[in-house]
Amino acid sequence: MRCVFVFFMLLVLSSDVFAASVCTHVDRDWLAKQVPPLPGEAKIVYKKEQGVLCEVVLAMDGKLVPLYVGKDFVLVGKLFRDKKFITGETIDALKDVASRERIEANEKKALKKEKRKAYFKQNLKVLEDLTLFSFKPAKADKFLYVVTDPNCYYCKELMPDLEMLAMENHLEIKVIVFPVLGPKSRNMAVQAICEKYSYEDYEQIQYQPDTPGCSQADLLLKKTMPFFSGAGLSGVPVVISGDGTWVVEGNDIAQVKQHLGLASDDGSGGSAEGPQNQ
User: Fold this and answer.
1) From-to residues of CATH 3.10.450 in the chain
2) Which of 39, 50, 48 is nearest to 94 (CA)?
3) What is the spatial distance between Cα 273 and Cα 271, in angstroms, rounded to a whole number?
4) What gap in Å lies between CA 159 and CA 142, rounded to an integer?
């Protein structure tokens, strides 16, 4: 009788262990409570027990991101066991999933860009109203808009190339300040607006903490922030043609030249994307 009871207790305990999978509690909502804000399109495409951890693969922006989850924590990294690269084997097994996610993400990006281009074309007057200052060579008879953040490395990298392009092709560069990278950027934008910076001043801008605000900055940024948020814009720089027929996102000067019908000097461009919103 005692043996039967012991067997019964072992069976119950074993059932509890199997029922309480280390992956049971893991879903998107639980992950969102443990890690920094997840992109809206992030989704779980794979879950599997790996000993005391749950191996989870997230699809985000067309990429697969492996995570290892415990009861109340999340690890980001690579798992090895018995000299086997477990993470690598998992990602290799998900090649078809990765390909589908990449294609879907690229299609979504292309669609968003087309919608932004249409949005800007329909709102050229707003772009003009948001322009803070410009770089205008002699005899300039055409113009471009460039959307920048005063604390953006890629924007600063692009501007000299745009200036050279402007001087060689009689283009005016109209600058719109969109402080998308956080409080420091906003502070620098307020500084430029309230102190009535020229284009040359803006090129040399340095962060000054505790910059006093002004009504002009409040009004301009009150228009700027929701306007570009409405376009779904989260990165800078962005170059927009004067008539809104084309848009280049990122600091790729070769693309700008291509849209203008100009040959690129070396056929190479800058990075495809600017820094993203934090």
Assistant:
1) 22-93
2) 48
3) 6
4) 17
SS3 264: coil
DSSP H helices in the chain: 2-19, 28-34, 86-93, 95-122, 124-130, 153-169, 183-194, 199-203, 215-230, 253-259
Query: pTM of the full predicted structure?
Result: 0.71
Reduced to 3 states (helix: H, G, I; strand: E, B; else coil), residue 183 is helix
Handedness of CA 162, 164, 165, 171 (dihedral sign): positive
Mean pLDDT of 215-243: 94
Helix axes 86-93, 95-122, angle to 10 degrees: 70
> Dihedral through CA 118, CA 122, CA 124, CA 130, nearest 10?
-90
Class of domain 122-259 as given by CATH: alpha beta
Nearest by Cα to 226 from 180, 274, 273: 180
Reading across the β-sheet that carries 133-135, which strands appear in turn?
133-135, 171-177, 142-148, 238-241, 247-249
Which pLDDT score, from 0 to 100, does residue 268 have? Answer: 47
- What are φ and ψ of residue 201, in 5° steps? -65, -45
Residues of the chain with CATH 3.40.30.10: 122-259
CATH number attached to the domain at 22-93: 3.10.450
Lowest mean pLDDT among 47-56, 76-85, 105-114, 124-133: 105-114
